[in-house]
Amino acid sequence: MSDGDLIKRFYRSFDEEGRLKTPIGQLEFTRSCQIIDRFLTPNAVVLDVGGATGPYSFWLAAQNHIVHLVDLVPEHIETATRFQSQTDARLASISVGDARDLQYEDESVDILLLFGPLYHLHEFDDRALALKEAHRVLRKGGKILGAFIHRYASLFDGMISGWISDQNFIPILLADLEDGQHRNMTDNPFYFTSTKFHLPEEIHEEVRGAGFLNPINIPVEGPLWMAKDFQELWKNQKDLVLELTQQLEGEKRLWSSSPHLIIVGTKPD
Questions:
Q1: Nearest CA to 115 among 162, 159, 54?
Q2: Which fold has domain 3-150+198-266?
Q3: How many CB atoms sit inside 10 A of residue 77's CB?
Q4: Which pLDDT tens digit goes with each residue over 4-39?
């Protein structure tokens, strides 16, 4: 089964919208928005590739950016289309599409979000195609912001959730730690779908190999999501969580504790 088929099958049964509404999901979304905001220019043209049902797209559109949403999963696009009819935030376009073959003109966007394809595309050649396409459609000086999952994400997640005591989870975890090739051969959707988990230096090589300059990594959740009673901490001290997470983001020794990181690369002028 191809990567694309695996992605579609997984997200037909997985509630991505619901995930972002949990306390940890809210931390991920809020932090990602803060990071994106650092690189925006007024009325930017943004292409949200692999944007699921459009949480980041609609947030950007509400700030008067010109936003195009593309996702591989038809059900995601149907949901985004329904939501658009109920909100004042208007997207420039909503379409089913593949990160490896974007239906957009050369040098036509300012910012390209790749939140999903860098880990859902399991094979290096497929990720290279997605990065090449991102480079093609970005204007000179434009930015790619790509989310990736750290190699040790399943280790920390397994410790916090208790999955590490599940014998079905151990082979998945051991493979993750060896080479980042995450393959869920069980029927448990909480163990995710087949995915690539990166070390920061690996994703740097892939992004530089596609022609982007000066890639930088920014951890999204940081380590505080592992705090005891995080739900209460987020509810009562959200501002403190965000302040500490931003303060710690330059501490490379803590990057492995953040499930998601965002790599930012610039297309040469």
A1: 54
A2: Rossmann fold (3.40.50)
A3: 21
A4: 565 666 666 556 667 788 999 999 999 999 999 999
